[in-house]
Write a structure and sequence with these properties.
Blueprint (H helix, E strand, L loop, with lengths): L5 H10 L6 E6 L2 E5 H11 L4 E3 L7 E7 L3 H10 L4 E6 L12 E7 L18 E6 L4 E7 L4 E7 L4 H12 L3 E5 H4 L2 H11 L3 E4 L6 H9 L6 H9 L1 H18 L8 E4 L7 E2 L1 H7 L14 H5 L5 H12 L5 H16 L1 H11 L5 H9 L5 H20 L6 H9 L4 H10 L20 H11 L1 H16 L5 E5 L3 E7 L11 E5 L3 E5 L1 H33 L2 H27 L5 E3 L4 E6 L2 H6 L8 E5 L6 E5 L6 H17 L7 E5 L3 E6 L11 H15 L4 E6 L7 H21 L16 E5 L9 E2 L4
Parallel strand pairs: 1-5, 7-10, 9-12, 10-11, 13-23, 18-22, 21-26, 23-24
Antiparallel strand pairs: 1-2, 2-4, 3-4, 5-6, 7-8, 8-9, 14-15, 15-17, 16-17, 19-20, 19-22, 21-25
Helix pairs in contact: 4-6, 7-9, 8-9, 12-22, 13-22, 14-16, 14-22, 15-16, 15-21, 15-22, 16-18, 17-22, 19-21
Length: 766
């Protein structure tokens, strides 16, 4: 077998350590792929498959992309589930002895992307890490692009359902999971069929607990309370610790932006299972999986990327803490009362960029000078925003005011140092302003005056030699040269050194010319090198201010989300609901927020709702198909949810007693992948609801029993109703909204805080 070329030997040496990736191998101005990687990339990216001599009899299949436009190609590959390893030249080719050293500097996977053009600015991009054993479970959700970490652990019997619910809430783009968790069929089915993401099996036996604790402690410094959580739940230790190790492995970085860890507290948020999220269409529609037509579509009028991500999380995780809800309501009310302030804030916010993700790239050393200028443009708006809210009264807006740092030192540094329109790359110069560095200014003078120097030398040589047509030129082969036509060869001085003979002239060099060349060309090279060093220093200086920028970015996100809720309230004629800890849900002239907007100006007929633990525990609603029964039921649930987000609601008035969970059983279809018929799926969901509902839960059942015969369905509905009623006898604060549609009599039933089977409220009938 013929020996491989040195370059190809280097390629294979690197490739063997990254066998499960597509290796982007840097050769000059291109990233090249070879062999099977090239075949895959050629097909997925529609690139021409060529070949390259590699020392073998057959040429190596090859394709490539320009390095300056590689991000779009990488994004396409990652979106299709591939991992891409970026292999760079790690030494200067000009000074390299032999083959240029290369190494993988980063691995790009679906859950570890930090480039803005590869991400949806409105969504977090989470890597999920799931570890389950026979006693407890730990889940970590890490968004490396923002530095957010959300952890959850539990030891109860419903770990499978909770895993699925959390996955449905955070919707990670990549998952690592241990073998025990991977053995749970329902979890894997959900990951494959509902999330459509890849997962990677991890063997926790390969990791040492002490090492994991050490890794975690670097990101939760001096917080004994948080660190103690990992001692209580080893599964959480493995979930978070291995997630960090995995991220360090692909990022080739210390993950300095990950230092804000949030532990999920089920006492803080309204619990929504995956069925409720789907049936209520919180962030996307059921059929088309589009934002338009969802509750998020109604509420999201945010102007910043940070705000878009935050309001999504507010919709996904409504509050159950009374004080927190009231604080949001007070802030929204203050903004709705001053529409001039609201408009000006939204205008300022529209000029702001995604500084949260920009800071991540700055910290990781991948941000360019344009991104620093973008950061500066965003900082410029902070003074306008802060001065606008200087006189606010609500606690939450005051907190935002306090958290906004004007970052004047960062702005001053960027404005003084970085040019207005710097290049996209950081190794070609043109980034640093004149006047910022004296050495750079001197070098620029040399380069700019180089043409003048050359003209002076040319004139001087013409006068010395008497050769009037003597010219000075330049090429890449031997640099600056003196060109003399053949008719003047006899006048060439002896100290001229011949370098090239052409048909009609000779080219020479001189010691003086080479010294000038060294001075001019060396100046340009030094400019590029010094500019990169200065830029790196500036970038590191800004990176050191990560926490200040992050606190400010999240304050801006809160303000943006509040402004969005206020805007919606003003423009859609929403009212502030009374939120309390009572057992009542009382809605006057309630409207479905999505349906109302989708009607495009046509009137929406409002409906009242009155549910409590006394005379209005159960509500029966009848009507023919298409009468609006399902819309009404969803409307009650959505208005309740909106109130606990802190939003105003579509009603003339509303009083909402805080609920801890919302369950829905609305419609059904076969789930063949899980081997479940319509009826089986329906009964499974009903059983789960009856199992997990508490005395403060809201339940919506629509057409329960539709998956079987009419009379069997009616019997099931009655049995479920009686169970809820009987359960309510021992837990009189039970909150339930129970809806049933029978095939023949078209009956829909809503039950709230049911205690007495003899108490019904008929809302409307056909």
């Amino acid at each position: 077998m013929a020996k491989l070329s040195p370059m190809m030997e280097q390629y294979f040496q690197i490739k063997k350590d990254y066998a499960d990736t597509l290796l982007f191998f840097r050769l000059g101005d291109f990233y090249e792929m070879f062999f099977e990687d090239a075949k895959i990339a050629s097909k997925e990216l529609e690139l021409v498959l060529t070949g390259r001599d590699c020392g073998q009899e057959e040429r190596a299949p090859m394709c490539g992309v320009p390095f300056h436009s590689a991000d779009s190609y990488i994004a396409k590959l990652v979106s299709r589930g591939y991992k891409v390893a970026i292999c760079e030249q790690v030494e200067d080719p000009a000074t390299a002895k032999g083959i240029v050293k290369r190494d993988v500097v980063r691995i790009v996977t679906p859950g570890t992307v930090i480039e803005s053009n590869m991400l949806d600015e409105s969504k977090n991009n989470y890597l999920a890490s799931i570890f389950l054993n026979d006693k407890n479970c730990g889940i970590a959700f890490v968004d490396v692009s923002t530095g957010e970490v959300h952890l959850d652990s539990f030891t109860d019997d419903d770990s499978t359902a909770r895993i699925i619910n959390q996955l449905g809430c955070y919707r990670p783009s990549e998952i690592i999971i241990n073998k025990y968790a991977a053995s749970v069929k329902s979890v894997i089915t959900f990951i494959k069929d509902r999330l459509s993401v890849d997962y990677q099996l991890i063997n926790e036996a390969d990791y040492n607990e002490d090492d994991l604790k050490s890794v975690i402690s670097a990101h939760i410094p001096q917080d004994d309370e948080k660190l103690s959580e990992f001692s209580k739940n080893p599964a959480l230790l493995y979930a978070f610790g291995i997630a960090l190790i995995y991220l360090k492995g692909v990022q080739k970085n210390e993950l300095d932006n990950i230092n804000d860890v949030d532990f999920y507290n089920e006492n803080s948020y309204l619990s929504l299972d995956i069925s409720a999220r789907r049936n209520l269409e919180l962030t996307e529609t059921q059929l088309r999986r589009e934002k338009k037509g969802s509750l998020l579509w109604v509420l999201d009028h945010t102007k910043t990327a940070m705000g878009k991500r935050l309001i999504r999380s507010w919709v996904e995780q409504p509050l159950i803490n009374y004080n927190a809800i009231i604080q949001r309501q007070n802030a929204v009310e203050e903004l709705t009362a001053d529409t001039i302030l609201l408009d000006s804030l939204m205008n300022y916010l529209s000029e702001m960029f995604d500084i949260e993700r920009i800071m991540t790239r700055i910290v990781y050393g991948t941000a360019n000078a344009k991104e620093l200028r973008t950061l500066g443009k965003t900082i410029e708006q902070l003074s306008n925003i802060k001065s606008s809210i200087s006189g606010v009264k609500s606690k939450m807006l005051n907190s935002i005011y306090d958290d906004i740092d004007l970052l004047e030192d960062i702005l001053s540094l960027i404005e003084n140092a970085i040019t207005e329109d710097p290049p996209l790359t950081v190794r070609e110069g043109g980034m640093i302003k004149k006047g910022y560095n004296s050495e750079l200014d001197t070098l620029h003078d040399i380069v700019e005056n180089g043409k003048g120097f050359l003209a002076d030398v040319e004139q001087a040589e013409q006068e010395k030699t008497g050769i009037k047509k003597l010219k000075i030129g330049y090429n890449r082969v031997f640099g600056y040269y003196i060109e003399v036509t053949n008719s003047f060869k006899d006048l060439v001085p002896d100290h001229y050194i011949r370098k090239q003979t052409l048909s009609n002239c000779e080219r020479y060099i001189t010691q003086e010319l080479k010294e000038l060349e060294s001075k001019v060309l060396g100046a340009q090279e030094r400019i590029v090198r010094i500019e990169y060093e200065i830029f790196s220093q500036i970038r590191n200086t800004v990176a050191d201010q990560l926490e200040r920028v992050r606190v400010t970015a999240r304050a801006v996100a809160r303000l943006d989300s509040l402004c969005s809720l206020a805007y919606v309230a003003v423009n859609n004629n929403y009212t502030r609901p009374i939120v309390d800890t009572s057992d009542e849900i009382v809605i006057k002239d309630g409207r479905h927020p999505v349906v109302e907007l989708m009607l495009n100006g046509s009137p929406f007929v409002p409906n009242d709702t009155h549910l409590d633990c006394r005379d209005n525990r159960i509500a029966i609603i009848t009507g023919p198909n298409m009468a609006g029964k399902s819309t009404y039921m969803r409307q009650v649930a959505i208005i309740t949810l909106m109130a606990q987000i802190g939003s105003f609601v579509p009603a003339s008035s509303a009083k909402i007693g805080i609920v801890d969970r919302i369950f829905t059983r609305v419609g059904a279809s076969d789930d063949l992948s899980a081997g479940q018929s319509t009826f089986m799926l329906e009964m499974t969901e009903v059983a789960d609801i009856l199992k997990y509902a508490t005395n403060k839960s809201l339940i919506v059942f629509d057409e329960i029993g539709r998956g079987t015969s009419t009379y069997d369905g009616m019997s099931i509905a009655r049995a479920v109703l009686e169970y809820i009623v009987d359960k309510g006898v021992s837990a009189c604060r039970k909150v339930s909204a129970f809806a049933i549609a029978y095939h023949v009599i078209y009956c829909v039933l809503i039950v709230c805080r049911c205690v007495d089977m003899g108490r019904y409220l008929l809302h409307f009938s056909a």
